[in-house]
Amino acid sequence: MMALNSDSSMGISDPQCTSKPVVAHIELNCSEPVTQQLDCQLKTLQITVLLAPSGTGKSSLFNAIAGVAPASGGLKVTGQQQLGMPAHKRRIAYVTQSPLLFDHLSIAALLKLVAKQQAQPFDISWAIDPLGLTDKLVYRAHQLSGGQRQRVALLLAMIKGAPLLLLDEVLTGLDQLNKQACIGVIKDYLCKVQGAALLACHQLDDVLALADSCLLQHTINNSTQWQMFPVDEGVERYQQQLLESQSSENIQGSQFTSMFYGQVHAHFPALGLTEYHVGGQRCFAAYNSEHQIGRLQPLILKANRLGLSKIALPESSFVNQLKVRITAFYPVNMGKEQGMLVKVRLANSEQDGVHKPASLHVWITRLSFNQLQPKLDETWYLIGKADALHG
User: Which residue ranges does UniProt annotate as crossing the membrane (predicted)?
Assistant: First the structure.
């Protein structure tokens, strides 16, 4: 289990978002390679992720917004119309999925070159060290790893100082430490420029850690349209879309991540634990001193790090035992191992009257499923260690 920090907007919608200034108003129609429409507003500090399988037009939509692919409609950034403007003049910074960096220059020289091309270059010196690139400035692009090149591309994009940031799989290939550093830099940048970001990302735990809203696809009259949801609802809807799609046999249990909310009850630094209460039930996650007692915090569970038990276990190293009700079963494999994804709802999880009862996923092997024989609407216990997922 992992606790997220709502003070930094990690995975939870800002209740004041509706009162924040609009950074971008997008009303785009694209016809290549798929017909799609996007109509949304992005507000200050808002990070919105596009959730859709590969090959459904996310990169094409980003290209249209950035000005490197045709589109019709409207695209305003801080009130200024961007359609019809060349890409380099748009108030948009774009980090592509496969950035092209000049190999004949060092990274330091490349940063200086891009800065000289800007009328008012944005200072990115503060971001170099958090991204782990201080000792890489003398290198050339071909000497860097894929993740390091991606972080250099983020620096280059930020030099533009644009209030709308497009991030196409910017976290792909990064280990957890570098992901957290990258997430921190992105959020700091948006604070400095009072901007907003659109993100394409396939790892749902990264989505929950970074975004506060999601855009999901639905089809109307052979046209793909994007609809916005709060991040927790969007992730749940997207996972349900995956389960109900015709290609569900290709999904993996490791892809399923769930989020619910717990009230911070107590800290136990000597044990490395923080206690949360969820609808009258106790649960524990890794110690986080930044979580204030009494605050509601989002908590993340990954389906393949959990288990089920028909009865409550005696005291053991499994410190989390949450009472749940089974709502659905889906055949989902883990690599070559056959298994079942069990969908459950936390008992008494209305919590503060704001969030609906949480829906969670648990992946178990087909052998375990046959031995346990769980049935719909039965009450079971969700079992997971406090370190079920690391931040």
Answer: none
